[in-house]
Amino acid sequence: MNAAYPRKLQIVVLAAGFSSRLGQPKALARVHGVSLLRRTLQSAAGIGADRIVVVVPRNAARYRIEALGIKVRWAVNARRAVGLSSSVRRGIAAARYASGILLLPVDLIHLKNRDLFRLVLRWQSAPRRLTARKIDLAGATPVVLPPWLYSRASALGGDVGLRELIGQLPAASRVLVEMPSAGWDVDTPQDLQDARRRFRRHSG
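-> structure tokens emitted (204 positions)
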């Protein structure tokens, strides 16, 4: 990362959610024998960031097993019952000295490195702008936050995600990037079954 991206980017993987709609810890759900957390960390490691921070719940021994062989820093979110915002806040606190923080959900099952590289390169060319995945005319995670937005993102409450924050920014303060492979997440048992069928079909 240091050669390609001289600014210090840290990646925060958000893996502490309750996953109530899925009915099991989303990060530990397996597709084709590999957990969603492991897949996400492999994609993150391929970027070569200065550091990868993983936000996890308490008693996260199984999460740590999924990261074997990948250098990460763990950040325990003891207040995850408060909602997604608590994981965002915990991750930003752990990576607050970075030149940019890439917030990465754990459930983007088909995320490709080329799309992550595209996002990071666009941030690198305009480091004071928030850089996010484009959805129609709006933005969503994955998103790279510049330092001037750390406190604002940390002030989010409950299950309020980052879309509202992204939408409130003037056009001159944000960059939206096409990331086709980030369009499918895993929220429900049906999503997980579909992902497993898709991987089985592609590997057959």
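The longest strand covers residues 138-145.
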